[in-house]
Amino acid sequence: MSPDTCYHCALPIPAGSHWQQVIDGQSRAFCCPACQTVADIIHHNGLDNYYRLRDKPGNRPEHTDDDRHPFDNPEFQSQLVSTDAAQHCSARLAVEGLHCAACAWLVESRLQHRDGVLDAHVSLSDQSLWIHWKPGSQSLGQLARDVEQLGYRLSPWHPEALLQMQQRENRSSLQRMGVAGLAMMQTGMMAAALYAGDDGSMETRWRDLFRWVSLLFTLPVATWAAWPFYRNALAGLRERTATMDLPVSLAIAGAFLASVIGTLWHSEHVYFDSVAMFTFLLLAGRHLEMRLRHRNRQHSLIRSSTLPWQAHRVEDSGHSTTVPAISLSAGDRVQVLPGEAIPLDGIIESGHSSISEAVLTGESLPQSRGPGDHVLAGTINHDQILVLRATTSQQQSRVALMQQHLQQALSSKPATVQMADRLSSVFVIVVIACAALTAFYWWETGADAAMAATLAVLVASCPCALSLATPTAMSAATYALAQRGVLITRAHVLETLPRIRRALFDKTGTLTHGDLRVHAVHTCGDHKAETCLRIAAALERDSNHPVAHAFMHEDAPLASDCQQHPGMGVSGIIDGVRYRLGHAGFLGSQAPDSDHHWIGLADAQHVLAWFALQDNLRDDAADTINRLRAQDISTGLLTGDPSLQGQRIATALHMDSVQAGASPEDKQQAIRDEQARGLQVMMVGDGVNDAAVLSTADVSFAMAGATPLARLQSDVLLMKDQLTLVLATLETAHRTRHIIRQNLVWAAAYNTSIIPLAAMGWVPPWLAAIGMTTSSLLVTLNAMRLMRSR
Amino acid sequence: MESLYLLVPIGIVLIAVAAAILLWAVRSGQYDDLDREASRILFDEPSAATKNQAGGDDHDNP
User: Fold this and answer.
1) Tell me: the pLDDT tens digits for A187-204?
2) A235 touches chain B (CB under 8 A)
3) Vertex A418, ends A416 and A423: CA angle to 5°?
4) Residue A45 falls within a domain, yes or no?
């Protein structure tokens, strides 16, 4: 870690900062007292391992003044805490900010060090914490405070039905795989003995013993472990489609039944080992696929909970109490403090403030709202205390309904038909016909010969390689991309991406950073631009208004008597002079022009400087657009911003088209028009107003800073704020398509060439089984090449 | 070779026990969080001694 970044959170250390602490025998520097406190707590509790083993920098803790944690309020206690027979309490909380195993260990160790805590367990996969403690010595609020001091945020745990379903699916898959794996090892051992004795050196009674034992081990595999394949095959048949699971089921059930018959009739060969191995390999492949799918879904789910979980209800007496947000209903009066998210839809009763609706609209500048105005849950209150009268409960708020709607849409989205599945319905019919013909032809020679040849055809044609060809390549590519910070949430993405001919981009937050920065400074008096910036930074230091973020400065002086003037600006005293910072109207002056968003700085008499605030282009935007064009993909800008900035950006980046001032409907229409011209369109966006647009595009990308709704709706989530990841995804998709083609060609060539040979009786079933396994192995290894990063 | 009549059944019973343990372990949630277990070995379990000492130290922290 470089010396000028904070040892705990890795943010740059402000000049002149003196926060130091000795850890691991070295003096470490910190950016703020809060980070130092965390490091101190970690160090004093002997938890230094955290710094050695973590993957990512820590969270910057938030400063809290409250003495009493809201979890200790009776309303929360009754919801969160359950008491067991021994009068011990337990509670489950959702944890925000867990990155890696080091985080989980840190939280657990911190709690386990506490007196009265019996057990604490952190689950990384569902980002939750379970605590078990003796109520006398600790309260939940104190324990929660301990964790929050480390920089993690806690909220009540509301298990999603989807997560529970995933847990069941995961357990069932592991159990089936485990049983199949054990059976595979045992039958493999038996098979080694059986093959060795194939030259006739083995007595029949030992051969039969091994066969019966193999049968016993394979029975649960062919019935219970392979059940998902049978179920899917039947479901496919009911809809009159032959899925890949049909030949898989036929191969498993067929080979098993033939082996049972072979055991009973003492025929020449049995294939129990092949059945167990085939089932295990397929189950393992499906399990890896399932884990990737679950993880992607969890990422979007966990991030979707934007709504605050606590709210301040105003009682009839005028006092406010902190209650769980979900226990509020329409008609309740709710107080919202500056900087808080609004917990439910409502109408402002008193107070004027500016409200940032970025969560819903992506618009970065806050809107001014006063009594009588409608405000929506999830938006952020910036300047002043508001009192609302709720019009809905939180579950019925606009954002919550949109989220529910989207989740339903997601779960009902039909699975895309993959190339291998389409191939398979033809393949299945051919295989069954071949097997039937072979049996018929050999029947006159004798039942035993007919059985051997027919089975050889069935085993040789076993579409193991064919059915592994696509999913293994997909899984490997998805995994490789996840390592680089790209999450694929829909199976079709890698198939569709290489066909994309048109790429559309949103402006704010996608091509640009999405937050305001100082673009230009016009000084009007004797002060230097640098001095003016420092004064502005001092005035805005304690504001959480988006405009304030533009004025971050390393060594801002201290301002006293800072006042917020909602919707206007701020004022404060520095070195005895009162300064004002705000819009032209607030300063009683005229801005230089109307092209930019101007903020002025004035003392009592004169305007000292004008700052042009602008949302700057991302550094990698030009590179991304150029390289897309080099791949013969035409680019376009679709923005809701009606100003000239869209045109300017499109010209600067040499984009092929631009549409400014587009409503979400316009954007959707624009994509449909392109699709009507036969082009496959991809869309990169970030706002909720983009959500519908993202679902219309053939492939959609959501930026790292995208709103939860946009993330839920998009096919690809970027976890890092880099536009070039779009290119990386495209490149991986091309390589994946290439590998899948190689795999399919190989598998199809192998199967089609071995089937005639098997039908002629030239391939003994054991050779067919070895051939099948080798072929599958080749396909899998080929797919693994995708996991190597370039 | 007759010993196979004894050894093979013993093998079957052992495998059945192994399978039962596996099924139980999965059902009781021990495999729910696979991301975590890979690195658990790297972290020391807090011992009783550090627990008491840390409990005392904590009061000094702000």
Assistant:
1) 999 988 888 887 778 888
2) no
3) 140
4) no
